[in-house]
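Attaching the record inline, Q. Sequence:
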Amino acid sequence: MKAFAQIYSIIKIEDLDLINFNEVFQTSKETIRKSLNGEKFVIKYNIIPSFIASGEVDPLEVLNYSECLTLMQTPEWSEPMPVE
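Structure, as predicted:
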């Protein structure tokens, strides 16, 4: 059986209440990863959720795993590591 590639979407925080958590890997508002400024969050899925397919939620970005990992390491999403 072939594994499906996981897809990551960056969403505006204003759209958080439109997310159907039955259609994504995150289980609730408490389990999402937010940008440090709190303006964006990321969701992960294998099949495009109905709220995106219908246009109800318009992702700011759609990324693969590698792209998402790179984004999560930017100052917008991660605190800098302290220098010892």
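The chain has one domain: 7-72. Residues 35 and 83 are 22 Å apart (CA to CA).

More tomorrow.
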